[in-house]
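Ticket 4471: requesting a sanity check on a complex prediction with zinc ion. Repro inputs:
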Amino acid sequence: MVKTEPTVTVQTGPVHRSLKQAGLRLTRQRLALGRLLFEQRDRHVTAESFHQEAVSTGIKVSLATIYNTLHQFTGAGLLRQVVVDGGKTYFDTNISEHHHFYLEHDGALEDIPADEIEVLGLPSSPKGTLIDRVDVIVRLKKDTVS
Ligand SMILES: [Zn+2]
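Returned structure tokens:
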């Protein structure tokens, strides 16, 4: 198989290091997307929003590549996936334990620190499974009264 993208070996930096540690091949495009995504802290993007952002900063990339890249970063433990409903998946650069407010009127997520929510009365998990984590999504609508 012919490699179509050159592997970048001379650059360094935190994004470069984490992609490398995650075992991802350091293509120019993956590095550019990684920088764009991780150099501002703690954000939630969808494949569509991140695609728009990438294109607007001059990275020529297809939505399918964005989608694959976000899934590769997730698989490597660099991102966390937050599924709000069947049709909406966000990718979260904050991979520590936390929960979310979902602002339904503008489709945005906001972090809630893990210690601000206490989950009581979890059922025991089915045989052969362990509870990995509990994600709480608090859905918000616009307060039209105040
Ligand atoms: Zn988050």
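Notes from triage: Residues 97-140 form one domain. Leaving this open until the requester confirms.
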